[in-house]
Design brief:
Largest sheet: 10 strands, mixed
Number of helices: 8
Shape: elongated
Length: about 290
């Protein structure tokens, strides 16, 4: 990684249309947060390949790609502090390393190396799972400028440490972009043997709503100007959040919820959402436990 510390907002760029989408999103985030933007392009040197390859200066091609990304940013935001960082190495590893000191990583769902039918590229999937800072997968139409379309920030809440971190990010994002927060707790009606008669469906739903309100109270007090809508929805979390995020500016989820196994880096729900949501998705990990 570059000798100078990577701080602020980081965008991974590979020259693809999805990469442009990531740059546009990252510009909006850097501007709203008052942070510098770093554009990273990583390339791999193929040594000892049995396949005959044309003589190409791969580093020069990579530098040209990076320069194009930086120039795109400068045209969009002339006053934004931006620099480019070129790395020779595995893209996922370089971005994960940058995430150790960055405030936010922004990536496209898949790059130039992705197969036509692939929903999420391998680099994005690895970074989402392993990065220490929040990661935004800038899904959606590359031609849309999300930073000037505030909309709603939808957040999935289940009470887990990661979802509480996601809730904090959702409120902060909404305040930065003059958006509203739509907090959703998905509840599946699963028959459980031995439930007492008074623990009926209506009672469980009421308790879930009270718990959701309790979790949101500190964020409401910290961000009093943010308009909030909270609801408990019957249904599987994946489907409920996909439906709720239709037309949203951003969907924020924790990396894994209450049902995740200890040590699991990315839960099944968050994995499905970064694969299939129609809007950008932010994945937030819980604060690291020193005992982990």
């Amino acid at each position: 990684m570059d000798a100078e510390a990577i701080t602020g907002v980081v965008a991974g760029y590979d020259g693809s249309q999805n990469g442009i989408r990531a740059l546009d999103w990252a510009v909006g985030e850097a501007q709203s947060r008052g942070l510098p933007l770093t554009v990273i392009h990583a390339w791999e040197a193929f040594i000892g390949s049995p396949v005959a390859m044309p003589v190409v200066d791969l580093r020069a091609v990579a530098q040209e790609t990076l320069d194009g990304g930086v120039e795109h940013v400068r045209k969009q935001a002339p006053d934004l502090p931006v620099r480019g960082v070129l790395e020779c190495g595995r893209p996922a590893a370089e971005l994960i390393e940058a995430g150790q000191s960055a405030a936010l990583l922004v990536l496209g769902p898949r790059g130039l190396g992705g197969f036509a039918g692939m929903v999420l590229g391998s680099v994005s999937a690895q970074v989402v799972a392993h990065a220490q800072c929040p990661v935004v997968i800038a899904r959606g139409d590359p031609g849309r400028r999300p930073e000037v379309e505030p909309g709603r920030v939808v957040v999935g809440v289940d009470g887990s440490p990661a979802s509480r971190a996601a809730l904090a990010m959702a409120f902060a994002e909404a305040e930065l972009h003059d958006s509203s927060v739509h907090a959703v707790a998905a509840w599946e009606s699963v028959p459980v043997k031995g439930l007492p008669p008074l623990a009926d469906e209506a009672g469980i739903r009421k308790a879930a709503r009270e718990r959701l309100d309790q979790l949101m109270l500190p964020m409401r007090e910290l961000h009093p100007g943010v308009e909030v809508r909270a609801e408990v929805v019957l249904g599987p979390p994946r489907g409920v959040l996909l439906d709720a995020s239709q037309g949203a500016r951003l969907l924020v989820v924790g990396s894994r919820g209450l049902g995740g196994f200890r040590g699991l880096l990315l839960g099944s729900v968050s994995h499905a959402l970064v694969q299939h949501a129609t809007c950008p998705v932010a994945v937030v990990h819980a604060p690291q436990d020193p005992d982990d």
